């Protein structure tokens, strides 16, 4: 009886070792095929998270949760929002790989970074 249990255990372990990597590959290819949307919150005079890394094609949405107006301006002028009042949003699709720093032109000490892969 103990030998039978040992054989069943080894067969189950072998199945897990063989199937698990295949499941990971399927999950990675699905993620690569459809870039996710990413949200950045503007609050308390800061962008959160301050740095994001996304795949090309990802939509990034900044939402002003602060009580005062802010905007989002990339230093290379790739994207620029209008002035956003409380709860207003700005969405940009990151299409070209690179690193893009941005800031609030109303409050220039507010900075962030988008890394597009």
Number of helices: 1
Radius of gyration: 22 Å
Spatially, the strands of the biggest sheet line up as: 2-1-4-6
pLDDT < 50 stretches: 15-20, 22-33
Number of strands: 8
Terminal-residue CA separation: 55 Å
Please write the CATH class name of the largest domain. Mainly Beta
Average of pLDDT: 82
Global geometry: globular
Q: In terms of structural class, how would the helical and strand content be classed? A: alpha/beta
Strand content: 25-35%
Task: Briefly summarize what is shown.
This protein is α/β, with parallel strands linked by helices. 27% of the residues lie in helices and 34% in strands. The strands form two sheets. The protein has a four-stranded mixed β-sheet with strand order 2-1-4-6, with no helix packed on it. It has a four-stranded mixed β-sheet with strand order 3-8-7-5, with no helix packed on it.
């Amino acid at each position: 009886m103990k030998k039978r249990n040992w054989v069943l255990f080894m067969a189950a372990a072998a199945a897990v070792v063989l199937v698990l990597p295949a499941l990971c590959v399927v999950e990675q290819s699905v993620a690569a095929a459809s870039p996710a949307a990413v949200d950045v919150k503007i609050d308390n005079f800061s962008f959160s998270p301050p740095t994001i890394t996304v795949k090309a094609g990802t939509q990034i949405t900044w939402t002003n949760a602060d009580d005062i107006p802010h905007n989002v301006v990339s230093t290379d002028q790739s994207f620029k929002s209008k002035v956003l009042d409380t709860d207003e949003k700005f969405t940009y699709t990151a299409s070209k790989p690179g690193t893009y720093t941005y800031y609030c032109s109303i409050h220039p000490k507010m900075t962030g970074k988008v890394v597009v892969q």
